[in-house]
Amino acid sequence: MQLMTKKRINTLFRFSLIGLLLVFLSVFTIDIAFASPQQQEGPVYIVQQGDTLSSIALRFGISAEELQNANNIADPNALDIGQHLVIPGLEGITGLLTSEVLPYGTSLTGLTRQYQLNRSNLITLNRITSPSETIAGIKFIIAINENEDPLSPVMMITAGETSLEASIRAVTSPWSLVADNQLAATWDMLPGETLYGRTEDDVTIANLPDLNEIDIDPLPIIQGETVLIGLTSNSEVEFIGSFNGEPLHFFSDDGEHYYGFLGIHALADPGPFPLKITATYPDGTEQSFEQLTLLSPGDYGNEWVFVPDDYLDEAAITEEDNYLQPILRQVTPDRDWEGRFQYPIDEPCINSLFGQRRNYNDGELFFYHTGLDFAVCAPNLNVYAPAAGRVVLAEELTIKGNAILIDHGWGIFSAYAHLSEITVQVGDLVETGDLLGLIGNTGRSAGPHLHFEIIISGNPVNPQTWLDQEFP
Fold first, then answer.
1. What pLDDT score was predicted for residue 31?
2. 360-412 tens-digit pLDDT
């Protein structure tokens, strides 16, 4: 009996040693697993449309190999949209990293307050050297807290306003304003700056009193496209503006919503340019806000065109353009059109797109296509008004041949070229669908077709946008 007990004890002892060894090995294995690259701690980036491993790595200033190793990625070409990637080398930064197109009116200080971020972390994430690099339209990397909603602008401090008055107007306490806006104390609130908090009310933005909303479409701005800038104000204010020196006019149907259109030249240099908005108030005072805003390439293609050499004379081209520009620069304060523009022919067969970089006659002239070309596909040659407006030109030109211009109001014009016949005259008011003329082959034309343009600020813009989208 004693012998059996000793054997049993020895057996139990051996099993205990084995058990302890297994426990030790399992703990060691867990430690190894947690130390693996896939489990490294750090901020997480969500893969978005168009991202590649290399582009993500470049954005954060690391190598593609570092990013691949940190996330145990076997195939660097097999990223999925929505996939979470740990970004190594960003010590002290936590949260979910997301790309946001900066809206007009955004500042570096505003971003730190809105998302409750550390300023130096925001600078590190976006590798910027100056607050002026918060350019409207660029993509900014922001670390957000998934468990908290970002703050909203609640007020703009006015001259002579005390912190107590400001907090009453913002329906909060002075100490909450100090904490939410990363201020040193109540005395740190400066006139003209925007403070953030938790609210759903409309507030002033971009340091322009009574301005509740600024919407720029598209943002970033694109070569050859129409830019619509919408403003919402809680009082009747007169707005004007400019983009890179190009004047911008605003119009309103109701005294609350204001709209301004920019036509961006299809050959405009990409880059950041100043967009300025000035408000004139009923008492005569003016206030302006200006911010660099990004202009991006339109990514248009190329095409080769052959026409009679007589139509490639640059002096004749310049003379015609100088004749038309004063007409196209007029801005009519009344809007005639309503809704989306209609196609100007019965069967829209497009044989040349807007913006194409054109090579005429093997290099005799380089330019771009200023409109849409419609081939003859319908059983007729009819050309119709796409929207209501007033005829401001109807005559034969050298380059455009028999041509028509219609002023639709608010600085928007449509043009029709190479017609065989014109059935309207200057001063006529036309409605959508009214007959303007017949397709032809006059002027600089390589065959019968309708050349159709939309022109803003003297610049032809992509007509397809007006055929697809309703403005405003």
1. 40
2. 998 888 899 999 999 999 999 999 999 999 999 999 999 999 999 999 999 99
Dihedral sign (CA 171, 175, 177, 180): negative
CB 81 within 8 A of CB 48: yes
Q: What is the DSSP letter of 30?
A: H
- Structure-block tokens of residue 331: 């801005």
* Residue whose pair of structure tokens reads 């991202």 in the numeric block: 51
**Contact (CB, 8 A) for 401 and 445:** yes
pLDDT for the residue numbered 54: 93
Beta strand 401-409 with 429-430: parallel, antiparallel or unpaired? Answer: unpaired
| Domains detected in the chain | 44-144 (3.10.350.10), 152-197 (3.10.350), 211-296 (2.60.40.10), 302-468 (2.70.70.10)
Query: How far apart are the C-alpha atoms of 470 and 458, rounded to whole Å?
Result: 21
> Where do we find the tokens 């971009």?
206
Q: Which token pair is 51?
A: 């991202």
Q: Rounded distance, CA 439 to CA 4, Å? A: 112
- Which contiguous run of DSSP H or E holds residue 109? helix 108-114
Query: Cα–Cα distance between 190 and 173 in angstroms, integer?
Result: 17
Q: Give the residue ranges of the chain where pLDDT is below 70.
A: 1-41, 200-207
Angle, CA 235 vertex, CA 233 and CA 241 arms, to 5°: 55
